[in-house]
Specification:
single chain, Rossmann fold, 8-stranded parallel sheet, 34% helix, binds NADP nicotinamide-adenine-dinucleotide phosphate
Length: 340
């Protein structure tokens, strides 16, 4: 039996989740919530997607442009087994009430406060914690990237402390918010929200993060400093990361020296939208001095949480084990490497 899935929001994240859900053999995409009848809605309708709107005024806008509306978002919420909410961060509280009233389990995204959900989710770290929950939060792109890499290094090499300095892309490539012509401290205070957010996934990890916003649209880059309780070697860390799901080792020796190259790598791999779903670690940046390891990591902000959203659907409804779900999702999105 197929899982009936609704997606609320069809922007940077919701669009990707919708197209990914549509590829899963155990899921049926029932409909998508959206407010404006733009090119994304038009192409979605051409592909056979059904759109639902919050209010009659939105329906009128769709009708005026000749685009069909299948009903209200309230109706969509009633029809589905689970809803993936990818609306702007500010709407979470309002929609949470609607989902709870309809007894429809919901996944929220990392822009929402951790307190909105019963549990935060990264598939390979805590898949089972979401089973049977009503409200789950798939954490943000940077938290996902950090949690995958750090949980695996901690399991094998016993981390005592992590520091990450994050250079953040200022805006997504398709958002007309304008570029910053400066390096903005984001925020000025330490830590940035990313470290505390990682603690919602890895509560025992001692981590501090700092973040600056830079005038670029593709990828965040982390300068990672990892203190360990024992000595290790770069080769041992590389071996650990090669055995970690959804981590990709990249190398300057292959010409990947910047986010221009990681972006181009995504296009070259030929995946949907040129997306890279893995945490990307520069293999030749991995250095060990004493008990301290250093490395750089890139996070493709638009794509990295996509497989987590698909896995979280199965985790909440308990339709597959962690390993089964990661494998199914990875196969559907052409993600190679280990699944456990
Ligand atoms: N962008 C990233 O890099 C990124 C990465 C990880 C996590 N996240 C998180 O993912 C969430 C969504 O972010 P995003 O970047 O995908 O946002 P986005 O691109 O702005 O998309 C938001 C979507 O929500 C729709 N929407 C607006 N008001 C609505 C309403 N009242 N009811 C239903 N739908 C409504 C919009 O539709 P219309 O366009 O038709 O108005 C749009 O499709 C946030 O929590 C964010 O923090 C974002």
């Amino acid at each position: 039996m197929s899982i009936k899935v609704g997606i609320n929001g069809f922007g940077v994240i919701g669009r990707r989740v919708a197209y990914a859900v549509n590829k899963q053999e155990d899921m049926e995409l029932i409909g998508i919530g959206k407010t404006s009848p733009d090119y994304k809605a038009k192409i979605g309708i051409e592909k056979g997607f059904n759109f639902y709107v919050p209010e009659d005024s939105h329906k009128e806008k769709f009708n005026k442009t000749g685009l069909k509306v299948s009903g209200s978002i309230d109706e969509l919420i009633e029809k589905v087994d689970i809803i993936v909410d990818a609306t702007p961060g500010s709407l979470g509280e309002m929609y949470r009430e609607k989902y709870l009233n309809a007894k429809t389990p919901a996944l929220f995204q990392g822009g929402e406060s951790k307190d909105l959900a019963e549990v935060s989710f990264v598939a390979q770290c805590n898949y089972e914690n979401s089973t049977g929950k009503n409200v789950v939060r798939v954490v943000s792109c940077n938290t996902t990237g950090l949690s995958r890499v750090l949980s695996s290094i901690d399991n094998v090499h016993d981390i005592s402390k992590v520091t990450s300095v994050i250079a953040r892309r200022a805006v997504d490539p398709d958002l007309p918010k304008g570029m910053v012509d400066s390096v903005s401290l984001d925020p000025v205070s330490v830590p940035s929200h990313h470290g505390p957010d990682v603690s919602t996934i890895l509560p025992d990890l001692d981590i501090v993060t700092m973040a600056i916003k830079i005038p670029t649209t593709h990828n965040h880059v982390h300068s990672l400093i990892i203190d360990l309780n024992s000595s290790t070697t770069p080769d041992a860390i590389i071996d650990t990361l090669k055995n970690t799901p959804r981590v990709m080792l990249v190398s300057s020796k292959e010409g990947i020296k910047s986010t221009a190259h990681t972006f181009d790598l995504g296009r070259e791999l030929g995946r949907d939208r040129g997306d890279i779903y893995e945490s990307m670690i520069w293999e030749d940046s991995i250095t060990v001095i004493g008990n301290r390891a250093y490395m750089y990591m890139a996070v493709a902000q638009e794509a990295i949480v996509l497989p987590e959203n698909v896995d979280a659907i199965r985790a909440v409804l308990n339709t597959a084990t962690r390993e089964e779900s990661i494998k199914t999702t990875n196969d559907s999105l052409c993600i190679g490497g280990p699944t456990s």
